[in-house]
Each structure stands twice: as structure tokens, then as C-alpha cells.
Amino acid sequence: MDPEESLRGQLLIASPALLDPNFARTVVLVVEHNDEGAMGVVLNRPTTASVAEAVPALEDLVDDDEPIFAGGPVEPAAVVVLAEFDDTDAAAALVFGDLGFLRADADPSVLESAARRFRVFAGYAGWGAGQLEAELALPSWFVETPELEDVFSDDPEHLWNAVLRRKGGQFALIATMPPDPSLN
């Protein structure tokens, strides 16, 4: 795959036609995309568990009541941490701008000075070789350039609507659709 064709660092916005309960009305940040497939994290599915409850080792990095987010259906016990880095050398890998992955062996005391914000995800979304491209052709997903605030949204339940409105045109109209249009 030509690196210019990679969707790494882009948002996937679920189209209303995407009915899979794992992805209906989701916004996914693509964190890797190459010839072997793609990986992303769902940005708008906070769980009822706090980071402190689910991953006590990371509780000092986030606010007391910060929820852990359901990053996707693949390996739900795996923890993925994205951070906005002041020192990008402290990142395991960058996704876009100064947003990147937390190193698995990172020292929490060093992290507080290396990064400004953290978001913790349980699991991730994954696509095999060519699978995401096939879904984009349907179209199951709309692609949009992310803003850093999308990753750290204070209102994740309305992120799908907000990103579609920002995209504009017909997408702004789609953003107004109720979850079940038959109830209109």
C-alpha cells in the first residue's frame, strides 16, 4: 500500500447503514493501516467502569471519574492508551500530530511531564488485509480528518453527530437522523 493511501490518523464515521452493534454510530480513529490490514479505536463508547477500577496502575494519569472506553471488539482485555505528548520521544508511536501510544514500559512518574492528556481504551477494532477497503466501498464508513479534541471529547455520546456536522453538506443532514428513523 502506498503510504499516501493509508488512513492512519484519520477518522472513520459509521454510516447509518452500518448496523453491526459493535460499530453502529461510532467514530473510530485509525491508528494503523497498511497492506496487512488496519487497527483503530472507537472514540465514543465510554464504559461504566472507571480507569481507576479497571486499570489501577493508570489511575494517576486521568481524572478520578474518567471512564475506560470500549476501543473495539478485538481483545477487550487489552489496554490501549493514547496520549497528547509534550515530548513525542516518549511515545511508542505517533498517530497524528503529537497524539500517540503510551509505551508499555513507561514510567508513570515520567509520563506526567511527558504528556498532557491520556485516554484509556479496552480492546480495539481490527480489519484484515483489504477488509477496510471493501467496507469503504459499500460505503459503511465516511472518512474525516480528526481534531485532537475528537480523541479527548468531553461529550463522547454526541461525537458521531458532531463530526458529521463538521464534515458538512449531506453529512450534516445525516447527523440529525435519530438512531431508529422508523420512530419519526
Q: For the report, how would you describe the main beta sheet?
A: 10 strands, mixed
Class from secondary-structure proportions: alpha+beta
- The share of residues in extended strands comes to 35-45%
> What would you call the shape?
globular
Short description:
The protein has 184 residues and is α+β, with helices and mostly antiparallel strands. 20% of the residues lie in helices and 36% in strands.
Structure in words:
This protein has 184 residues and is α+β, with helices and mostly antiparallel strands. Helix content is 20%, strand content 36%. The protein is built from six helices and ten strands, in the order E-E-E-E-H-E-E-E-E-H-E-H-E-H-H-H. It has helices spanning 51-54, 108-114, 131-137, 148-151, 159-167, 170-174, and strands spanning 11-14, 27-34, 37-42, 46-50, 67-70, 74-85, 91-96, 99-102, 115-128, 141-144. Strands 1, 2, 3, 4, 5, 6, 7, 8, 9 and 10 form a ten-stranded mixed beta sheet that branches.
Key features?
single chain, 184 residues, alpha+beta, 6 helices, 10 strands, globular
Write the layout of secondary structure elements.
Elements: E1 11-14, E2 27-34, E3 37-42, E4 46-50, H1 51-54, E5 67-70, E6 74-85, E7 91-96, E8 99-102, H2 108-114, E9 115-128, H3 131-137, E10 141-144, H4 148-151, H5 159-167, H6 170-174
Parallel strand pairs: 5-9
Antiparallel strand pairs: 1-2, 1-10, 2-3, 3-9, 4-5, 6-8, 6-9, 7-8
